[in-house]
## 1
Amino acid sequence: MTVDGWFYAGLVVGLASTIICIVAAVMKKRPNDITLLSLAGVELFTIIYAVASLLRLTTGEHLAGAGWEFWGYMFTAAALPVAGFYWAMMERTFWSNYVMGAVGVTVVVMLARMAQIWYGLSPAVQHLQPGIGQ
C-alpha cells in the first residue's frame, strides 16, 4: 500500500488522541478539556485533509479508486469525532473516554483505506481482489 505524509500525520494525531483518551479512561477520569481537545484535533485534521484532497483533485490529480467511496470514508471519518464528542457530553463518565479513544484509531484505519483508494493497491495485493471463485 502506498501511503503519504497525510497518512503519517493522521496516524500521529489519531493515535495520540487514542492514547490520551485511553489513559484518562484507565485512570477513571471523566471527559475533560484534554480528552475533548484531542478529539477536536482529530476532527481538525480530518477537515484539513478533506480540503487538501479537494484541492489536489481540482489541480489535476486523480483517484485510482471510486470517488464516491473515498468521499464516503471522508464524510464518515469527519462524523466520528463529532459523534464521540456528543457521546461524551451526554454520558459524562470515564466510559466515554473509551468511546473517544476508539475514534482516533478508527479514523487512522479509515485513512489507510482512503490511501488505498487514492493511490490504488500495490501489485502484490491486486491479485487477491477479484473475489471468490474468480
## 2
Amino acid sequence: MSPTFRELEPRTETTRLRERLDRLRASMEWASDAIPRDVRAEVRETIGRCDERLSLGVDWTIVALAGGTGSGKSSLFNAITGSDFAVPGVTRPTTSHASSASWSRGSGGLLDWLGVQDEHRFEVPHAPEALAGLVLIDLPDHDSINVANRDVADRIVPLADLLVWVVDPQKYADHALHSAYLQVASVHGQPSLVALNHTDRLSDEDTMAIVQDLQRLLGEDGLVEVPVIPVSARTGRGLDNLRAELAGAVESRTVASEAVRADLVSAGKALARALAKDAEPTMPDPAEIVGSLARLAGIDARAEAAAAVAAGRAHAIPSLEPISLASVERERLDWVDAATDGLPLTWRRVLTDTIATGEELTASLNEELAAIEWPEVTAPSGWRARLSRGLRGGAESKAVAAIGREAVARVVRRSLHDPTLMIHQAYRNLDELTELD
C-alpha cells in the first residue's frame, strides 16, 4: 500500500487564536462551576464575540469612528472616504445610526453582523489598494440624549478591530468619554488611536498644547502608547497621516486578530480571579489507589490463597466479598485531597462533582470484579509438581494479583483518573490564558 498525503493549511495566527478559543470554550464547559458567576458570564460573552469574529474571517479590518456630539465624526468619515455619504451634525444634531464605508466588495456578511442597515452602507469607488479590506464605521454619538443611539455605539465599540476616538478641542477631557470608554478600552487592550478634530480653529501652539494634555489624560487612562493625530475634516489637515495609520493597520492584516487576542487577554484577566497564583495541579499516583482498592477488595488475599492452593497448602480459594462503600469513599476523598492540593476551594467542588461518586465507584468496582474469569488453580500432583510447588505458587499468586489489579485499574482510569485529568487540563488552559498579552 502506498502512503497518501493530504495538504494542510498553514498554521496562521487565526488558527492559533481559534485553537486558543476552542481550549477556552472546552475548559469553561469542563469547569464553569469553578468560575464566579459574573466572570463566567463575561467569559462566555467573550467566547461568543470572538467566535463570530473569527468565523467571518480576518480579511476585513473594522475601524470605528467613536466620539461625542460635535466632535465631527461624520465630517471626518466623509473626508476619509471622499464622499458626502454621512450626514454631518450641521444638518442633524446627532448621528442616529451607524454608517459604513467599505474599500472592497463582499463585506455584506460582516455588516449584517455589525447591524449596519443596507441604506447606510457605502462602497468607496476606485478604492486604493492600500486600504483594500477596510470597513469604516461612523458610530452614533456616545453622549447622545437618545438611549437607542448610545446603545448602537455601545454594541459596536467592542466589536471593532481598531477604534478611532474623535475628540474636539472643547470636550477632549470629557469625563464620560474617559471613564466609560477610554479606560475600558485600556483594560480590554483594544487597539485605539485618537483624532483631535477641528484643529483649523486653533493655532499651532494651542494644537500642540492640547495634544500634550490629551496624551497626559490618555496615560492616566492607561493608554500610554495610543497616538494622537491632529486633523481637520474641513481643511484636510492631518488626513494623510490618519489614512496612513489606517493603511498600516490594513496592510499588517493583524488588527482583527489582535482585537480577538485583546478579548482573550481581557477574559484571562477576569479568569485570574478564579485561579490560585502559581498553583500547579498534581495528579495523584493511580498505582497507589489501585493497590489500596485491590487490597480492600480482597484481591491480595485471593492471590495468597491461589499461591497456597498451587503449593498444596490449601484446597480452595474463597470468593471475593463486595467491597464496602465506606472503604471506597475514604480512598476517593484521599484522591480528591491530592488532586486539588493548592487549588481554590471551588475547584475541589468541581472535581468532586466530576469524578464518580462513592456509590458509583463502589458499584463499578464490584461489577468489574464480579465479571472476572479467574484462572483455575489446582493442587500439585506427582513428585515433580510437588518439587516445584514453590515456583507454581508464586506464579499463580502473581497472575491472580495482576488480573484483579487490572480490573481495579480500569475502574480507576475511567472513574477518577480521566475526569481529574480533564479538570486539571481545564485549569492549565485557563491559567495559560491569564498570561496571554
